[in-house]
Amino acid sequence: MDRSWISNPDRLSAEYENEVGEFVTFVRESLDVQGLTKCPCNRCMNREVHHIDSVRYHLLIYGFLKDYIHWTEHGEQSNPQVPLGSPIQDTPPCMNKQDEEMAEALRDAAGHAYDIGSSTNLLSDMCPPAEQARYDKLFEELHNPLYDDCMKFSALTFIVKLMNVKVLYKWSDRSFVALLKLLHEALPVGNRCPRTYYKTRKLLCDVGLRYEHIDVCKHDCTLFYNEHKDADVCLICGVSRYVWKKIPHKRLRYFPITPRLNRLYSSKHTARAMRWHKEQRLEEDGKLHHPADGEAWKKFDSLYPEFAGDPRSVRMGLASNGFNPFSHMSTSYSMWPMILIPYNLPPWLTMHRSNYLLLLLIPGPKSPGKYFDVFLRPLIEELKVLWDGVQSFDSYQHASFTLRALVIWTVSNFPAFAYLSGWSTQGKLACPICLEDTRYKSIQSKISYIGHRSFLEMSHLWRNSKEFDGRLERRAPPRNFSTADILSQLEAVGQSIPGKATTTAKRKRLPTELNWTKKSILFELPYWSTLLLRHNLDVMHIEKNVCDNILGTLLDIEGKSKDNDKA
To answer: Please, what's the largest Cα pairwise distance for the chain?
Structure first.
């Protein structure tokens, strides 16, 4: 039987489709009672079991496993006759356990096709040609041994492990190149070990997800993005985009969300875990085990039942904080990463760093401050698209669906709270909850926030005592400001010109603007104003700072005690 059609590159030809049909007819004789069989496509490689109809679609999309010419997994005898002139190789490549794990990861990354019709309808559902070529190249490297007769490593697994060691032990690029050259010389002739760091990175870049470079104005005025991507001069301050030739002053690195969310659903394991909050979470009255047990989550469900009805709709928290990327703290430099945390997962997976989605790397050397919104523009544009929905594929249910996602709140420390919310956390009205009802008192050069007795009942004994601040407390608690109240206050906030250029005139805040410095760019999201809880404070910072201050005061630690005039 001539089986040269297995290597036919034109998988949409009538000849290939007919041969696949004959294979399916042959396999039907050995099906189990559920109609399931092993799939010999290049993606499943006879390790996954599917319905016979799905097997047919896989063969049309991914192609037939080239070295599977003896159909022993599908009821054929062990030694069928194959023509001597067949171009198909008779010896399968070595695939050990680590290669199989790498293949599984690559299949998850490549995604799944949509089983929606005959081969003539599959063109729009296949990976883009460039993406498919990228993964085909990786699978080729995975099937090629490091050198002839190598039984332990493929070329791809060897490079991945070598790069992992480099990162773990912080090897320099020069030392890594020297090692590559030595390994290339030491291994047998014709080995596939790369000789340069550039070739190693080029191959591994195809494994991971890409990110975008976006140039930033020197003074953080604007991004050279979308319609301004070809501009050479900042449209606000007039400063050149580049330091010299085509080298920009600053560069923002943006990691698009959509491909990362699609990857969560391209693996059947994570796709199932993403439904945990709806299908497996146990509710107990009065106990908060997961954000889904909170009032903010439940109120959103009541406002947007269509979004809440699909357990695959993703809710994320947006976290940010500045850090010094250099090992020695004497260098004054502040870089701000922004991370998305998917809350669909169970708590033990949500807080695992492997599930954090790095979103932005905001360059330093100084904090973006109140001009944080400038850097959030790409995120806002993509979140608007994700709110309407994008097409994705659920590997757990083997079906396409409309993937929707939102940022349900932010998580930050107190200074970053001001950057994200637009309410200044400094001055007399620093409290972002009490707003204009913040109770304060100036003591020497410091501002003290008092009036805590106003939260007590009107008949409480402490309200009639002067031992706290020399006054009786007759005031009611601060008001609970509604969304309408906050939006009304934001209408009074004037427009300010972003950027830190010295030539830019700074606008003085009016008394009617209270402590608002801006209307946050997050309000452009159609659902943001309806959220019950928009901003959260990082518990770690609160616990650490409060604990340090209490211990420093109780133990009278020099420089740490708050029992002094400066405090």
So the answer is: 104
